[in-house]
Every structure is written in C-alpha cells, then in structure tokens.
Amino acid sequence: MAANNHIALELFRKAHPPQTAATIFTEKVLHKPLHLRPTSPDPNSQDARARRRLQRLRKKEKSRRRQKPKPLSAKEKRVTGIYDVSKNLQKYHIYVPLYRMWIRYIWEILGMARGKANWVTPQGAGVKLASADFHGAKVMVVRSKCVSLVGLRGIVLRDTKFTFQIITQQNELKVIPKNHTIFKIQIPQPDAVDENPNPQLDKDIGDDEMGVNVLIFELHGSSFEQRAIDRATKKFKQRNMIEL
Question: How far apart are alpha carbons 20 and 192 in whole angstroms?
C-alpha cells in the first residue's frame, strides 16, 4: 500500500503508462540500494597495516645504527681541518717523548732486544723499515731533486702516502715529498743507551755528540709511497737502487 502511494511512482505514472511506470519504479527505485556514505574500512586490517609499517621503520632504524659512519671526504677533511696542527702545538719539545716511544717501537721491529747479540743486516732490516710506521721518527733529508729540502731534519708528525710532515728544532712545520728523496735515520743501540747514564737522544740527526752508538739507515722515499697502515701488510721485494 505504501509503495502505491510513493511519490516516485506518481511521477512515473505522469510520464509513462501505468504498467511501464510500475516496472520502472520496481527496478530503479524500490529494489535499488541507496548508499549514504562509503563503506568504512575494517578496523582490524587498519591496525595490522600500522603494525607492519612500524615494524619496518624499527628494522630500518636498527640496521642504520649497525652501519659504520661514512668516512669524511677529502674536501670535508680540509674544511674541518682535522689534520691541521695549531700554532701552539708546533713546538719541537712537545714531540720528543713521541720520538722516544718510536725508538722502542723500532727496536722491537728490528729485534734489537737488550742483552742479546742480534745482527741487523741491510737485507733483513730494509724490508722491516720499509713496512714500519714512521710517526715519531727523526728523519733527515740527505738527497733530493729539490735542493732546498736537503738538510731538513725533524720529527715526523704525519706519515702520509706521498709526504712526511715534520717539526724541526726551529719549531717550523715542513712537508717533504717522498718521491725522489732519500731520508737518513739513526737508531741508537739498546745496550749503548743502558750503558750511558745520560744518553743525549734528544740531539738532532747529524750531530756527532749523540753520546751512543747508532745504526744509520738511508731510505729511498720513492720505494714506500704508501700509507703506514697499507705498508704494514705489504710485502716488499729487493730491487735496484732508484736513481735520483
């Protein structure tokens, strides 16, 4: 009864015959669902999606923490100046204890133990010196293609791939290229240091009054143009002398 009095049926009857109006009303109005708003999503599925996203974010954050920090580029190192030596630290006497530590380090490298008669030969010591770390060593330039570098001496502050950065007794910071340069190194003997109550190890290379017996080596800088950390694992072979 309510359907016969529907306003839509009355409008259809005015435009169509009674039988056609009843068919259109039944198919298009009476049996057609009316959606007032979109269907809401399932709250359970929404919570599961949020949990999965949170797990992914936590896993990504944990993986990021495990990764090592990215090393600084050469430009960033120059900008930050992490390898620069400030003026107040460019003092020779500050690095004398570093030289004394290096002496004991090189004794251990060459097997120069106290109280033992160990023979140090150029063939055996050359390979060990070429792979040694020279941070703290006293070096002197005896020959170089750059004449102005000859005679420079001091304690090595930085042993880079291609250069030595040294501090001289005049508190001057100098950068010496390894290529086409021969360095002189003096290593005092352990027993001679023990026998001399006041060894003058702080004397610079080339001074005759060091007060102890020393081993003198000349190293070709061109033969160890690697970083100290890379030379430690490198196997050096004997080759012909490099002509300057």
Answer: 126
SS3 of 153, please?
A: strand
**Which one-letter amino acid corresponds to residue 83?**
Y
Condensed to tens digits (0 to 9), the pLDDT of residues 118-131 reads 667 766 777 778 78
What gap in Å lies between CA 206 and CA 189, rounded to an integer?
A: 16
If you count them, how many residues does the chain have? 244
Q: In whole numbers, what is the pLDDT of the chain averaged over residues?
A: 78
Phi, psi of 10 (to 5 degrees): -65, -40
CA 232, CA 26: separation in Å to the nearest integer? 93
pTM of structure: 0.62
From residue 155, how far is each of 97, 106, 119, 151 by CA, in Å? 11, 14, 27, 13
Judged against a pLDDT cut of 70, whether residue 195 lies above it is answered with no
Cα–Cα separations (whole angstroms), residue 216 to 68, 169, 184, 219: 43, 20, 7, 10
